[in-house]
Amino acid sequence: MRVDTATGKKVWVREDPSVTSAYDGSLHLSGGSLLVLGEKGLLALDPADGSERWFRDLSAYDNHEITGDTVLLLQDGHSMTALDPATGRQRWRHAVAAVPAPVVRTFAGRTYLLQYEPPGHAGTTVVVPLDARSGDVGEPLEFDGLLTAAGGTEEALHLVQEEESGLGAAAVLRYDLGTGSTTRTLLPYEEPALAVADGDTVYLQYRNGLVRAVDSLRGRAEVWTVNTGVSTASSLVAAGDRLYLSSSDGRLLAVDTGRGLVVAQTEARLSETVQNGLEEPGQPVLLEGRVYGLTLRPSVFSVEAGTLAE
Hints:
mainly beta; Thrombin, subunit H; 29 strands
């Protein structure tokens, strides 16, 4: 479904058996196509009228990543295929021998392949830069321990190091892409956390509702900490001076990144959720100065970015 952001009216609606509900797939705009990941495959639509451009059966693939104007498909743990999102045609296909069964992440137009040696253990994390359009890979980077990627800029890659048991975040690492130097910031306590980076600030989101800001450039482990009061929340979305998240009762919340305060939130939408609460709240989406939330009715609502006013 496409909605006019100015009026909230439907522009077009498309029903397709490859996508049975909003929670079976996710949406991406890439290469001029609207890509819909469903339980049966990847469907590319024309954003203007909702007509089908191409479809790709993903049953033979292990994972996928949509980066910029390229669709990456991983098969048999090591073979990678790149598709043109406008046409669905193959651009390249080859084995990425340096990184079998990688985790694929993209930040600031840069794509990285992450692999753990031995797999699933806190031994070494290997990060390989990938040119998604050509398929060329850069020199592998090796880091001690189990690391996950939080974000990146044109200057640096931000990683979160897990404790040896893999049950909590122990440190934030900033790898300088120009100099090859690493700044490691130890965290005051080790708890499971989701992480997202914006510039040189890494935001850690804990299960108890706390959100912590870490200055990865200067090594400050706690710029601020705020209790959002939301224990079951979506992952964070960083946009300028705000962090946005959705709660299990259908609310959207905004955190001021400069002061570390919850500065706005919408009313709960319990009547639009299932069993008085979403099990997995959908991540907010920002578009043209508005924030969009999704309920399980399903329905979409939008509010002004920053103030969250209707």
